[in-house]
Every structure is written in structure tokens, then in C-alpha cells.
Amino acid sequence: MALKRLFVTAALAGMLAGCIEDPEGEAPDQPVIGEAGDEAEVVPLTEGPRFEAAARAVLGEAGEVEADWGGEPMRVRAHSLILLDGANAALVTQGRNANDCHACAGATSIHYLRASGPEDFELVEEWIALVPGSGWGEPASLDRIETRLASYPVLIFSRGYTGQGVTETNMSLVALSGSGPIISEPIMTSEDNGGYLGEDSPDYRSVEGAMSEPMPGQGFTMRYTGTEPFERRYRVKGGRFVAVED
After folding, report:
1. N or C terminus: which one in the chain shows less Cβ crowding within 10 Å?
2. Domain boundaries, the chain
3. Helix, strand, coil proportions of the chain in percent (round to 5)?
4. Is the pLDDT of residue 29 over 90?
5. What was the pLDDT predicted at 41?
6. What are the angstrom distances between the C-alpha of 51 and each of 58, 113, 159, 168?
7. Reduced to 3 states, what is the DSSP secondary structure of residue 71?
8. Using one digit for the tens of pLDDT, what is the confidence trace for 87-110?
9. Are 93 and 82 in contact (CB under 8 A)?
10. Residue 217: what pLDDT?
11. Angle at the Cα of 231 (from 229 to 234), degrees rounded to 5?
């Protein structure tokens, strides 16, 4: 089977093969659903035989490896395994940029797998450096996996950056659809210009946002508090979460 390697600059294309039963006749492990207030999250595997088997299918070994991701030298390690429907799964790998300068970002890749045995996987397709990271070589942080936004898991990554006295954090939503991961444009989660203007300045701005009112298959609202409270609605368009005007 010819495998595609897609980079962030490429179109997110290619269909994942349909769901199949475990070839050994055993149902794959089910994701663990946990309650956190009114949030339902998928808890991925981060250790154990199935996690290590997935890492070997993608990286060749279960530990850290060196790789070139889009011209950037990365130290790559498997981060988490999300078990999907049937025998399908998604492995998240994260790369720390060997050039750990202020403007050098790490990255996160998504790899779709299919179980070929109780503790074996084969690589179906992968999207290299799909999610950009922060400065100093760090990848984005996988904060949680949402089940309230779509019929499939949505990975929520966060990252931040400080430049010229302005600190901003944002999140990226990656929907694990059957045809491949769909990444939305970054969504601002906080911003503070106090390092540039000072908190006594009349133009000082400090806001922090949180997701609310999730509607499966439709979208959600970001509510911001701070010096300039406001709301911003996001709706699903073409599989992505897009800001819309009121």
C-alpha cells in the first residue's frame, strides 16, 4: 500500500479506508470517557503494549527518534493513541525542534493506523507537522480531546508566544474525521500587552477566553473576560470551526 506523507502546506486530502473488524476477532480497546463538569473527554492511551506498538508502526521504535519534518530537524516521540471506531486509531506524535531558538517552533503530527492484530498496527496515512508549536522548539500542548463538538473526537491544542512585550495564547482544534484530520484556524484564548504598554496605560489590554455552549456538529461560543469583555461565535463550515459575525 502506498502511503502518503502530507505536510502542513499540502491540502488535507486522502480517504481513510472504511472501518473493518479486528483481524484476530477481538474488539479493540474502547476509549475511556470521563466526566469533567459538563465536559465529556476521551482519555487516550499514553503507555502500554498497544501504545508502544502504534509508536513502532510509525517511528520504528517506541522511544525518541530524530526526523526531518518539512526541513526542520526534530526529536520526535509518540505522545498519545486515540482509539477510534472499528480497528482504526490515530497516533499523535510530537517533535521538539533541535534548533531551540526563540522563533523555532516544534510541531505535532497525526498518523492514522489500522489494527493488524491484538497488539499490532499498520500505518494508513499521516499528516506531518500538522499543528505548529510554540517558540524555543516546543510543540503545542494537547490539552484535551472533546466529544461535544462533533460525531468524532476533536483534539484541542494550545500554544503561546511573547514578542515585544505582548503575550498571546491560542488553541487549534483538530477534528479526527474519517477522511483525515481537519485543522481549524488558531483561536485566540488570551492576550496581554502589559509588557509593552504597562498596566497603567489607557491602552492596556488583557483578556482571557473560554469555550462555552458547545453544540455538536454546529459550533460553540468563546467568552472573553478582562479589560474588554466580548463574545465570539464559531460555526462549522467545511468541517472547520470558523468565526462568524453576529
Report:
1. C
2. 31-244
3. 5, 55, 40
4. no
5. 60
6. 11, 12, 25, 33
7. coil
8. 999 999 999 999 988 889 999 999
9. no
10. 92
11. 155
Alpha helices in 14-163 (DSSP H): 49-59
DSSP-derived 3-state class of residue 86: coil
Which residue carries 526534530 as its cell? Answer: 74
Instruction: Check pLDDT > 70 for residue 146.
Output: yes
Are residues 175 and 127 in contact, defined by beta-carbon separation less than 8 angstroms? Answer: no
| H-type alpha helices, 43-123 | 49-59
Q: Residue 136: which region, alpha, beta or left (left: phi > 0; alpha: psi -120 to 50)?
A: left
The DSSP 8-state label assigned to residue 30 in this structure reads P
What is the reported pTM? 0.81
Return the minimum-mean-pLDDT range out of 11-25, 79-93, 147-161: 11-25
Q: CB of 56 within 8 A of CB of 62? A: yes
All three cell numbers of 240 = 472547520
Helices then strands, counting H and E runs in the chain, come out as 2, 17
Q: How far apart are CA 113 and CA 49, in angstroms?
A: 15
pLDDT surpassing 50 at residue 16: no
The string over 117-142, giving b where at least 16 C-beta atoms fall within 10 Å of a residue's C-beta and e elsewhere, is: eeebbeebbbbbbbbbbbbbbbbbbb
